[in-house]
Amino acid sequence: MTEAERDKLLLDLKLEQEKISKTQEEKDAVWEKVKNNPDRIFMTEKESNKIWKELLEIQKSLLTTEERREQSMQVLRNNYKEIMANRKKDGAILQELKTELKKTKDEVEKTNTELRKLSQTVAKIEYEHGGKIQSLLDTVTSYPEKFDSIENRLESIETKIDKHSDQIYCLNSKVQAF
């Protein structure tokens, strides 16, 4: 049963109790009339029948209201049993969730510990190999400079060799001409 249905039943129960109260007040009012007018005790048969009819209607209303109240109380009792059963199930589910949450928390802590160890290992490797890597990078960056310098020297030597080759050719030509 949903909360809305339960609330509706409680509201119906409250309205029926108010009707009972109103009916009881009407009954009390009739009794007060009779009580306050002792000389009217000997009523006419017509008045007596009218009062009896009113009393019978009030009694029927009370019985109907009482039956409805009893039905509402039975529904409330059944719903209470259902709510208590669901509460026990919810408690078991909550306990299971707590257990799973604790396991997850433990796993997260374990992962954090492993992550810290890994970070320390990486930092150690960076420290130990940092100098070596820097030396390698320095060497690699210095090679192009050395290559440029060697290339310049090689071009200078090739130019000299070409010049010397031309001079040798000229000298050989002169020697042959004589």
Description:
This protein is an all-alpha fold and about 180 residues long. The protein is rod-shaped and about 180 Å long. The chain is built from 2 helices and no strands.
Structural class, from secondary structure content?
Answer: mainly alpha
Strand segment tally:
0
Radius of gyration: 56 Å
The 3D shape can be described as rod-shaped
Low-confidence stretches: none
Which helices and strands appear, and what pairs or packs with what?
Layout: H1 3-36, H2 45-177
List keywords for this structure.
0% strand; 2 helices; mainly alpha; single chain; 178 residues
Short description:
The chain contains 2 helices and no strands.
